[in-house]
Amino acid sequence: MKIKEMFPDERPRERLRQRGARALSNTELLAVLLGSGTGGRSAMDVAQELISISEGRLTLLSTMPLERLMSLKGVGEVRALTLSAAIELGRRSFEENAILDKKSITSPKVAYSLMLPLLKGLDHEECWVIYLNRSNFILGKEMIHSGSLEMVLLDTGRILKKAIEKQCSYIILVHNHPNGDCMPSQADITQTDRLRGALRAVEITLLDHIVVAEDSFFSFSDDCRTVVG
């Protein structure tokens, strides 16, 4: 059914106007972003296909390559770019809120929960740094490297430079293992020791290094694996 054939109060844009974004399903929100259908398919039809190929998981949709989105009938380049931009704005809003809320990292689980939305569902490794002041409040966080499926090589010099610029007292290193196993590799252990020593020389403490998997994480500070859920 085309959107214009729906009852007015069932159309995604009308529901958004009347009830707000929270009242809409993921499919309806995607339909609003798509704007209109094409080739005999409504925006809702295309949105439903997007939800279907991402198995109903926004984390999978958010990591879908642009080329894959553009190849779908009814999406194309302009709509794919619109979706990608909207997803990135959502990510940045999440990051900004974490900082503005003055969140304090009080445990490895808090750091894991903070970073999971950014790392869950990725098919490659990313390495992030969380910068903390003396009271463990977040000064900022950023991705410092994106690597292959199997590993990320730490740029110790870059991390040191950024940490000094932010005048932080502590940092927490976080990276993901796409294979689902959060246990650190020997390379992870070696690079962690190297970074800890380099930071110590400028009186900054590596508070923790957390390896994130889908439903578990490993904390170097606790020296243990934790299953979540």
Keywords:
single chain, 229 residues, alpha+beta, Cytidine Deaminase, domain 2, 2 domains, 6-stranded mixed β-sheet, 6 strands, 44% helix, 17% strand, elongated
Short structural summary:
The protein has nine helices and six strands. With 229 residues, it is of the alpha+beta class. The model has no long low-confidence stretch (mean pLDDT 84).
Give the percentage of residues in beta strands. 15-25%
Assign the CATH class of the largest domain. Alpha Beta
What Rg is obtained from the alpha carbons, in whole angstroms?
21 Å
The major sheet is characterized as: 6 strands, mixed
Q: Helical amount among residues, as a percent range? A: 40-55%
Order of helices and strands: HHHHHHHEEHEHEEE
CATH T-level topology of the largest domain: Cytidine Deaminase, domain 2
Number of helices: 9
Which regions have little confidence, pLDDT < 50, spanning 5+ residues? none
CATH architecture of the largest domain: 3-Layer(aba) Sandwich
Q: Would you identify the CATH H-level superfamily of the largest domain?
A: Cytidine Deaminase, domain 2
Number of domains: 2
Q: Give me the side-by-side strand order of the main sheet.
A: 2-1-3-4-5-6
**What distance lies between the first and last C-alpha atoms, to the nearest angstrom?**
40 Å
Global mean pLDDT: 84
